[in-house]
Amino acid sequence: MGSCMSTEKQPRRAQITNISGPQHLMMYVPRPRVDYNGRAVRTEDHELDRQTLEAALTTMAEFIDRQRQNITIITVGGAVNTLLLQNRLSTHDVDFFGTNLNNDQRLLLDEAARYAERQSQTPLGGEWFNNQTMLWLPPNVHRKVTQEAFEQDEVVFERRGLKVVAAPWKYALCGKMNRLFRPDQARPYDVTDAASYLHYHILRHGGHISAARIKRWCQGYQKDTSDDVIRAVNEEYRRLYGRNGIAG
User: Fold this and answer.
1) 70, exposed or middle or buried, with CB in 10 Å at 0-12, 13-18, 19+?
2) Burial of 98 by CB count in 10 Å (0-12 exposed, 13-18 middle, 19+ buried)?
3) What is the pLDDT of residue 24?
4) Which of 72, 147, 168, 219 is the most buried (most CB within 10 A)?
5) CA 104 to each of CA 137, 156, 224, 247: distance values in angstroms, whole numbers, following the listed order
6) Distance from chain centroid for Cα 62
7) What pLDDT, on the 0 to 100 scale, is given for residue 166?
8) DSSP secondary structure letter of residue 95
9) Which of 192, 147, 189 is nearest to 171 (CA)?
10) Largest Cα–Cα distance of the chain, in whole Å?
11) Contact 66, 58 (CB under 8 A)
12) pLDDT by residue for the chain (248 residues), tens digit each?
């Protein structure tokens, strides 16, 4: 912080709001790590509980704030379940994306995540904060999901310097359905996650959702689903919430 005696004009804090489109070549986070001989360094994953995640993101926010930046990112998956929905005890990473970001912000986020990793009393893992999801998002879908996430504004974490919002519930739902569509990729918790995301969408918008509408959502996000997957998600919804979430 500058001295209150200084008369020098302080730089304005930057707030990232542009969502018109990503830079042509988007930087991968984390940047590859190599040893002194230029060989890739292997990283380990760790299960991160809510307290560990909040502490790490707080350290990141403080780092970014010291650079006089405010950055908003979007996350999907385990971090949403662990921090916001609190229906999972832990996750192994925070997977972020957003066409509002440029490579200068991605670089700053990478530096902040590495700093948090060094400062953490609990091992985080070299890829605890990454943008792998971005690699699988076609540019038009990336822009669409960014816009919808900002409109939804479900805050997962927020401190001065860093705000994390959840991906649109309907996008998260379709992502889980896409994995359930492929039994070799599906994980035991995917159907429960899908039902939870559908529930939060319904809480915001009311009423149950038709199967046809869900198919249109998934088509718009370039995700696969099927009648069998939709039926399985509705059965899990009924088990969790005592009523149907999907009609038709």
Assistant:
1) middle
2) buried
3) 52
4) 168
5) 20, 23, 34, 45
6) 20
7) 98
8) E
9) 147
10) 68
11) no
12) 444 443 343 444 444 444 444 445 778 897 666 556 666 566 677 899 999 999 999 999 999 999 999 999 999 999 999 999 999 999 999 999 999 999 999 999 999 999 999 999 999 999 999 999 888 899 999 999 999 999 999 999 999 999 999 999 999 999 999 999 999 999 999 999 999 999 999 999 988 899 999 999 999 999 999 999 999 999 999 999 999 999 97
Report yes or no: 50 and 82 within 8 Å, Cβ to Cβ.
Answer: yes
Taking alpha carbons only, the member of 154, 147, 176, 181 closest to residue 18 is: 147
Going by the DSSP 8-state scheme, the letter that residue 220 receives in this structure is: H
Reading the block at residue 200, the tokens are 């939060």
What CA–CA distance (Å, rounded) separates 248 from 244?
Answer: 10
> CA 71 to CA 89: how far, in whole Å?
26
Residue 30 Cα to chain centre, angstroms: 15
* Residue for token pair 């919002």: 165
Question: Within a 10 A sphere around the Cβ of 132, how many other Cβ atoms?
Answer: 13
How many angstroms separate the CA atoms of 244 and 210, rounded? 10
Residue with tokens 């650079």: 67
Which residue has tokens 């690699």? Answer: 135
Distance CA 198, CA 109 (A): 30
Please give the backbone phi and psi of residue 164, each rounded to the nearest 5 degrees, phi first.
Answer: -120, 125
